[in-house]
Request: fold
Amino acid sequence: MATEAPPGELGMAAPPFALRATDGRTYTLADVRGARGVVIAFICNHCPYVKAVLPAMVRDALALRSFGIGFVGINANDAVEYPDDSFDAMVALAEDAELPFFYLHDDTQEVARAYGAVCTPEFFGFDARLRLRYRGRLDASRRSAVAGARRELFDAMREVALTGAASGEQMPALGCSIKWK
Reply:
């Protein structure tokens, strides 16, 4: 069953973190942010909603770089109950999909809880001061990609980079629930 995320508390400060990435190194919020902001994407390997948007997420992460927006993926799922979301499986996905961003493992689930994340994929967009300006979905895709869907996250974060705020309607993320321990 799909889980819908609640609306974002716009203006909320980005909680700090230090998590291991698929390259074996540990990265912090300061390491992944761009000069004009950052997108924190809660994703995982096995979720059909993530699989549906992964190519568009890669496209948008690359495009947002030119606007000074950093991008990071975080997997907080319980890998014991969901072995497809294990760290080794994350490494394989990062390589296979040629992810242009760090893919971090939140094995304690403390970071997901600090952000209030509830589903995958779920996107949190922060401005240059690391204040929440967007919480929602990538686009209208669900279990399959919607051809020609408006790039909701990209449009919002481009506006954040240029003006400091996102003025459009923010549609909630919908996907698989985070698999809590």
Notes: The longest helix spans residues 48-65. The beta strands are 3-4, 18-21, 26-28, 37-42, 69-75, 102-105, 119-120, 122-127, 132-136, 174-177. Residues 3-177 form a domain with the Glutaredoxin fold (CATH 3.40.30.10). The first strand starts at residue 3 and ends at 4.
